[in-house]
Known about the structure:
Blueprint: H1 3-15, H2 18-24, H3 29-43, E1 48-50, E2 55-57, H4 59-84, E3 90-97, H5 103-116, E4 119-126, H6 129-137, E5 143-147, E6 155-164, E7 166-171, E8 192-195, H7 196-201, H8 203-207, E9 216-220, H9 223-231, E10 236-240, E11 252-256, E12 263-270, H10 277-289
Parallel strand pairs: 3-4, 3-5, 8-9, 8-10
Antiparallel strand pairs: 1-2, 5-12, 6-12, 7-10, 7-11
Helix pairs in contact: 1-2, 1-4, 2-3, 5-10
Amino acid sequence: MEIRVLRYFLETAREGNMTRAAERLFISQPTMSKQLKELENELGTKLFVRSNYSIRLTEAGMLLRERAEDILSLVDKTEAEFKSLEEINSGDIYIGAPESEAMTLFAETVRDLQKSYPKIRCNIYSGNLSDVCERLDKGLLDFAIVMSYVDLSKYNCLSLPMKDTWGVLMRKDDPLAERDVFAVSDLNGLPLICSRQWVDQEFPKWFGPATGNLNIMATYNLVFNGAVMARAGMGYGIVLDKLVDTGPESDLIFRPLTDVPQTDIFVIWRKYQTFTPIAELLLQELQNRFNL
């Protein structure tokens, strides 16, 4: 299985059309078709269901697409790492981050490093904690910013001087906006808008057996979409503080949950990881900045 052919396959899967994919890769359509047919023969299974105007992935094709994305990301990252060995003042750094205010500290550190090394490029992958940690484990990321819910014994880590606060996001004209704080028990019976991840990971700790009785009206993966639903009056968003604009001009307001512990924030990386020179510089900058 050749890397070049995997790129052909992935571009075709993204386009849903072999002719357009061939044009984007500057090869002929017959060459593309021949290479993909040989890939199917090599794997012993059909990857596409073809029609006159489009193609769609089979179940095997969907599996290969997932694997191909990881393989090609790792290939591209490896090539970039070797290029960066030749010149210390440039290179790519790959960082995974869930939605957290702690990204501000990390961004400020990268910004200051770029003043001395302006050719550094920072590549951010955003996702939930499990997605971020999976990519870190596969070697697709240099660092990840995570909350204390991760098993830190698996990684090297630095603690950041910041904590995230859980709370309730609602419209400013909502009757409950008059309250200054909420307790977990106050959420019972309210229509809730929650991150899918936290429903599974944190709510059982907060609510115990009563988790299954919560009135969860909607779930989100990105807090921006959670805020849109709260603004529309669909319910009360359960979010981390400072991720949504709740300033004087906003129609939303945040109220903290007093009986939910704040979350500690860490920068983690794989044990025995070999850094590129520029990633090593970033680690040193983080250690110096936060006296760690």
